[in-house]
Amino acid sequence: MPKSTVTIDHALGKDEALNRLKGMLDQVKQSYGSQVSDLQENWTDNGGNFSFKAMGMKISGDLLVSDNRVEIDAEFPWAAKPFQGTIETTIRERAERLLS
To answer: Taking the CA of residue 70 as centre, how many other CA atoms within 13 Å lie in the half-sphere pointing to its CB?
Structure first.
């Protein structure tokens, strides 16, 4: 499966960044409605993991949150490889909005 890593710097501190990121997947669901299903997320003190289906394709990943950086690693099926750039851009834009 193809993988993507998106790293975003922030100045919020770990706890605030984590709190803001917890709403990111709900925003994706609201924005894309019926195209997104089976949304799951699990959170820890330092990040979490997520999975969902977009247009029937499973996307999953992990988030690692530190005092000044967030790293998001995502895996998606080969069928979504042509959309890798769009996936990375969407993840980056949404996370940057939440962390600014």
So the answer is: 32
Asked if residues 14 and 65 have their Cβ atoms less than 8 Å apart, the reply is yes
Give the CATH number, domain containing residue 71: 3.30.530.20
Q: What amino acid occupies position 12?
A: L
pLDDT of residue 71: 97
How many domains is the chain partitioned into structurally?
Answer: 1
First to last CA, the chain: 31
Amino acid at 85: G
- Which residues are registered as beta bridge partners of 8? 70
Is the model more confident about 27 or about 98?
98
**pLDDT tens per residue across span 48-76:** 999 988 888 899 999 999 999 999 999 99
Task: Give the range of the structural domain holding residue 21, as residue numbers without chain letter.
Answer: 3-99
Sheet arrangement for strand 57-65: 3-9, 69-75, 57-65, 47-54, 36-44
